[in-house]
Amino acid sequence: QIREYLIMARQPVSLDLKVGDNQDTELQDLLEDQGASPETYAAQKSLRQDLEGLLAELTPQQREVLVLRFGLEDGHELSLAKVGQRMNISRERVRQLERQALDHLRRRKASVGGYLAS
């Protein structure tokens, strides 16, 4: 009997399977979807593409500063000092590069304005 249960547990089950006392509920209705909605996913993907395009307009140093400062690749934001250590430049130079990059992006904010409004 245990083997039968183990075999049954390995077999896929349709999300359209009717469950409950009256067989009036589908299994998919009971499962919580913790992922992003298709609309949110599409907006995030589009934002990422636009952001990559904007970052491509920056100098390599400016781009690296923003990526490290704001954790754009790994989600870990670094201080000015830590970025300076990684890039072998002074904390002040990191601050200057960050300011230059952000000024450039602010001038181009029309590209991402739609994302900020929503």
Explain what this protein looks like in three dimensions.
This protein has a domain of 80 residues: Arc Repressor Mutant, subunit A. Helices cover 62% and strands 3% of the residues. Strands 1-2 form a two-stranded antiparallel sheet. Helix 4 crosses helix 6 and helix 5 packs across helix 6.
What key phrases describe this protein's structure?
Arc Repressor Mutant, subunit A, elongated, two-stranded antiparallel sheet, mainly alpha, 118 residues, 3% strand, 62% helix
Write the layout of secondary structure elements.
Blueprint: H1 2-10, E1 18-19, E2 25-26, H2 27-30, H3 38-56, H4 60-70, H5 80-87, H6 91-107, H7 113-117
Antiparallel strand pairs: 1-2
Structure summarized in a few sentences:
With 118 residues, this protein is mainly alpha-helical. The protein has seven helices and two strands. 62% of the residues lie in helices and 3% in strands.
**CATH fold label of the domain at 38-117:** Arc Repressor Mutant, subunit A
The count of DSSP E runs of length 2 or more, i.e. the number of strands, is 2
**What is the molecular shape?**
elongated
Oligomer: single chain
Measured by DSSP, the beta-strand proportion falls in: under 5%
Using the coordinates above, name the CATH class of the domain at 38-117.
Answer: Mainly Alpha
Task: Going across the biggest sheet, name each strand in turn.
Answer: 1-2
Span of the ends, CA to CA:
55 Å
pLDDT below 50 for ≥5 consecutive residues: which ranges? Answer: none
Helix count equals: 7
CATH structural architecture of the domain at 38-117: Orthogonal Bundle
* Computed Rg: 24 Å
Characterize the main sheet.
2 strands, antiparallel
Average pLDDT, to the nearest integer?
83
Helix content: 55-70%
CATH superfamily of the domain at 38-117: Winged helix-like DNA-binding domain superfamily/Winged helix DNA-binding domain
The computed structural class is mainly alpha
Q: Order of SSEs, N→C?
A: HEEHHHHHH
